[in-house]
Amino acid sequence: xxxxxxxxxxxxxxxxxxxxxxxxxxxxxxxxxxxxxxxxxxxxxxxxxxxxxxxxxxxxxxxxxxxxxxxxxxxxxxxxxxxxxxxxxxxxxxxxxxxxxxxxxxxxxxxxxxxxxxxxxxxxxxxxxxxxxxxxxxxxxxxxxxxxxxxxxxxxxxxxxxxxxxxxxxxx
Length: 172
Known about the structure:
Strand content: 5-15%
Helix content: 55-70%
Strand order of the largest sheet: 3-2-1-4-5
Largest sheet: 5 strands, parallel
Distance between the termini: 9 Å
CATH class of the largest domain: Alpha Beta
Radius of gyration: 15 Å
CATH topology of the largest domain: Rossmann fold
Structural class: alpha/beta
CATH architecture of the largest domain: 3-Layer(aba) Sandwich
């Protein structure tokens, strides 16, 4: 079971690459806060219509509200619920980009991966031929912040980065 926070879905939708997620992982679970962030808060945002109708996105209610409340002290609602959902489901992987959210999830023993890791997996499986155009689109179309220091190794040394990025993450 794969759980996702808002960022991977919105950013891939924004650049027309949303289909990478179900192609790589099949069904993806999102908690109510993530579903709402994507579909209700910004109903015309990229991915909103896709998420409302996608058969591969499954909503999962959150049982551990006290955990969500504790996580909300440092994280937004989507991140907190995504972490609680991933813990509850014993998810193989949590897709999350935000640094504080990733750190909190890892402290709780969850395997995490962000957009960059997803792209590397897609490239390793032959689903993406070149990373540079996608990374440029993430930066310039989606407004996803990626420093030049991060982009350069991904486009020139993917093998080295891929191993460290997805280390200890079970891939379905």
